[in-house]
Amino acid sequence: MFEPESLKSILTWEQQRQMLDEMKEVASSTNQASGGLLEMKKTVAAFYVFQCYLLEFGTKFNAEQAVAWLSKASSDDDSHEDQDYFSQAWLWRISRALGIQTDISTDTLESLLNLSVIRGHRTCLQDMLELMAINSGPERQRWWNSFQQFRNILQSQMGAVGMGYFFSNYMTRPWNTTSLNITTELDESIRIRLGSDYDSCVKSSVSSGQESSTQKGRDKDRTAFDRIYVNQRGHGLLHYAAAAGATNALRHMITKYECDVNIPNQHVDESPLVCACEGGKVDCALVLLENGADPNGYRFGQEGPLHWLCSFLPNEMETIASRLVRAGADIELRSGGMRHDVRGIRADWEHIFEIRTTPLGRAVLMNNINAVKVLLKLGANPLTKHASKHRGEWEGMKDFSKMIDVSSPFELAAVLTLPDILAEFIKHIDSPSGIPRLKLLDEWSMLDLAHAKKVTEFDPVSLQSRLVRCGINYKRNMRATLVLLHARDLPVRGSSGDELQKERSRVLCKEVSLGNLDVVEALLELGYSSNGTQDFRPLEKAVETNHEEMFKLLVRYRVDMTVTLMTPTGGISMLHVCALRPQHSRPGRAIADALIAAGVPIESADPRSRPPLAMAIMNQNFDVAQALLENGANVDAIYPLPSTTVDGTETKAVSVLVEVLSQHTMRTLASLKFLFGKREGGPSQRPAFHIDPTNKFSILHLLAGSPQFTQIAQITPKILNLCIETFAEPELINYRHPLLGTALYYAATCGHKTMVELLLQHGADETHNSGPDVDGSVQTLLRSRESWAPLWAAILRFDDELKKGTYFPPEGPPGAWLNSNLIQNSEKTLGLLSGRSNDALSKQAVDQLQKRKKSLETESYAWQKERVRKRREFKAREDEAPINLGILSDDGGKDDEVKIREICEGPEQEWKTGGLEWLLKSLTLSH
């Protein structure tokens, strides 16, 4: 399952873009399924591309592209993935909400909406009514007819949820052809199905039909009639008749046959009364109530009858709801929380049927204000967070809770942005005076609830959720909801000014970071400060995500772009934030340009902070770095860089080039290419050769003495080669540090084989002129000037390493250090330099060192050989020695030896019978 909203914060923008391109390729393929990296159908891939453009995954929001790909996703009538069904159900609704025209014909649109209604997408019924409202004449009548016809199919045959319980294709024989309207045909089918049990299922007299068909506290024993199932989901004949609205057939079967009117189906424990209410069949529901049906449904069912009040027409709701309540229906009854994957309602993409709530809460989830008004009139509590369990769940059981936690109807209406229902709740709560006395949910608490998914399974404030639920009103509903909650909270607000501003700023920052442009605009209109507070700066989040439209919105509300933030390493500006933006943010330099134009300093005002340019290069935000360079940023600026050492934290003054080279990764390579002008936007001049002018320390010396080395993908050699090529002039290659000598001499001193090799390839001086400046030094009395060549530096290095290993061997087997990278690099460095020298004395020194190493290797081999010999001798003695059983006890007595042998031989096997003993012997399994 592709979840762009969660992946956005995990994958880099480039990775997102690559995924988007891959899905586009699949969706545009001439084959139905792709054989590339993504194995999916074309229409599924197109749906995912639609989500990318809608939710800004690897691309900026683009309404036209989103609708175009959604249209493509809805084009295959023969594909039956969930994404196909979603796209077909949402196409008209979302395109209209986003203001994008589609070339879909009326006939095709009608077909898509009809199919979608059958599949359980109730919002398509709203679409039909909207299409009826915007048309006139025959077209208006056409949509009204479709609405009535397919609403009836949904509720009568598809269980009101898009599952074909009573659709003829999914019903078993003979019920898929038996008419409920012809009593004689129905009875004959029942007679054939029951066979010899038929007579036992026929009631003896009419009076028995007036008796209650259930007993409280337990289920009635099932008859053969009760065990008749019309489909594979385990619905019986009473469920079928109730859902279909076959009132006469239902009354006839209850009167004539021994049956349980409360019998649950085998799928989700729905009683016939629940099926009647799902189907919106008033007469059938009344018949069942008259015959003793439990007004709360089956005790383990997922919903009670009142949870399906929205299935009735507005003029029927009060009649059936009042009758249910008079019969004992609990108006605060809980709904179940069966998992989406178990219940299997494919249209329920936001898992609303998993939400435990009261009938009033379900009416909110179904966005049915008529059902809400009826339930409020009957006493439903919009604020309750506790619902009643079914009486059958707790009656007769001690210390068993009668209540269960549920989602409050008021909170549901708020997070689902249903302002009409919310206004009805507020009016009901504040009546009769209309004066607010009770503190309710405020606007920022609502947004917190929504994003935390505390009352719903998904975030209902996300753009996709609001578009599908609210359609063309997705912005209006959000704004109206926030205004309602804000206005209602004003008279009872208890928070102090500073505390309130802090909470408001926190919530505004959250919405900015989520990219909810219309939500942010609505909050700003309510008086939220665009500048936020010291702890929460909305501008920081807009810059961090590089959201240009959000940035422009905040600027329009007079945000201060020069504001600074305090961090543990010093104060930073918004340009620092821009330079530090994470890799999953959008690319682009427009915000950086706007900040620079607004007068935000190019360099750090606080000397403790790294410059914005250094941050941009280190974080690979090269577009921001380019903007800074074009406006005069100093690529050689020196700044403090804290680093952790064995002695604690140490701060060094470095340039960005030095910090880049402190790690050897692929990112290092990319940053160096930018710094050296080998990619677009880099500086016009390379960084300074001397990274520490005071100490005359060059970049090549830094590399020569660097302990960094990464073998993966040969990254280090690539980094070294790139740097040497950038500073390849002979005077730079052979630059002589007064104490360290040239880079070649220093690399030889450090045993840096790769650096020695590359410098030699670039013509580095190998003579004594490359050594340190010893003129006037007393060292010339001890060593001749010619011995200060790189070769002798390598000789001394190798000699030192051999001595250290000999006198201070590291942990591990003796001689193992001879194979370490340190020794091997020193030896290879020596080989590179000695092969190019004619110095007889140095050759003699090299031979002597090689002999010493050979001698050490011989000693190591002899030690290992002796160790192996001793181990083999010990093993041989161990194998030959008899086991002394006496060692297992203190005295080693004879009695203990006997006991131990009994244990080894095992107890007498009394369980073996004669026949089994013979069988085991024949199988050679017994001794």
UniProtKB/TrEMBL annotation:
A Pfam family: Ank_2
ANK repeat positions: 608-640, 742-771
Record Gene3D superfamilies: Ankyrin repeat-containing domain
Keywords: ANK repeat, Repeat
PROSITE patterns recorded: ANK_REP_REGION, ANK_REPEAT
SUPFAM superfamilies, A to Z: Ankyrin repeat
Top-level taxon of the source organism: Eukaryota
PANTHER family per UniProt: ANKYRIN REPEAT AND PROTEIN KINASE DOMAIN-CONTAINING PROTEIN, ANKYRIN REPEAT-CONTAINING PROTEIN-RELATED
Entry protein name: Ankyrin
Native source organism of the sequence: Phialophora macrospora
